[in-house]
Amino acid sequence: MKDGVCSKKYPKDFNANTVAVHNGYPRNRRRDNGLVINIKGHDCANVLINEQVNHDEINTFLDCRYVSAPEALWRIFEYPISHMSHSIIRLKVHLPENQIVYFREGEEQGALDRAAQRDTHLTAWFKLNSEIEGANRYSYVDIPYHFVFDDKHCKWKVRRRGEN
Questions:
Q1: Which residues of 84-110 are buried (b: 16+ CB within 10 A; e: fewer)?
Q2: Which candidate, 62, 81, 61, 58, places its Cα nearest to that of 71?
């Protein structure tokens, strides 16, 4: 492409027959079947019409998930995906007393009571720093390399060798 114009003279004109031209390059038959193919990349949209101005941009980004064509084929053909890489832990960040709580309609109070008894990854990290000497030298991002989060007891435990 030169100056926004195709240097190979595409798209070629429609021809009913193949014709040999004086410069040695043939004009190949190209039927006009009305078929037009637009080539473009994949789409990813996150659209929500809302009258509220308060928009949680960080939570919207974290909740977005897009499966591209190659990943979809790997999943359709049931190739093993999960063991091909190291484990990834999503370390959630929240303001004090503003952690995310999921509940069903009518079970709000029970969900709040359970959330008050459990520590999140972040609050458990703060407790770890105050309880174990030397743990405060690790930042929140580095803590999964040295500790494992125990979901049952909601606390960080020292990582044993080979545990992932």
A1: eeeeeeeeeeeeeeebeeeeeeeeeee
A2: 81
Please write down the long-range contacts of 3-8, taking CB distance under 8 Å and 24 or more positions apart: none
CA-CA distance, 100 to 82, in Å (whole number)? 26
Using CA atoms, how far residue 3 sits from 8, 52, 110, 158, in Å, is 13, 46, 66, 62
Whole-prediction pTM: 0.45
Q: How far apart are CA 87 and CA 149, in angstroms?
A: 13
- What is the Cα 135 distance to its own chain's centre? 31
Task: Using DSSP, state whether 117 is helix, strand or coil.
Answer: helix
Nearest to 159 by CA among 147, 143, 149, 142: 147
What does the angle CA 87 – CA 75 – CA 85 come to, to the nearest 5 degrees? 20
Could you identify the residue written with the tokens 């998930």? 65
pLDDT digits (tens, 9 = 90+) for 98-126: 888 888 888 888 888 888 888 888 889 98
Nearest in space to 122 (alpha carbons), one of 95, 153, 160, 150: 95
What are the backbone angles phi and psi of residue 108, rounded to the nearest 5°? Answer: -65, -45
* Other C-beta atoms lying within 10 Å of the C-beta of residue 24: 6
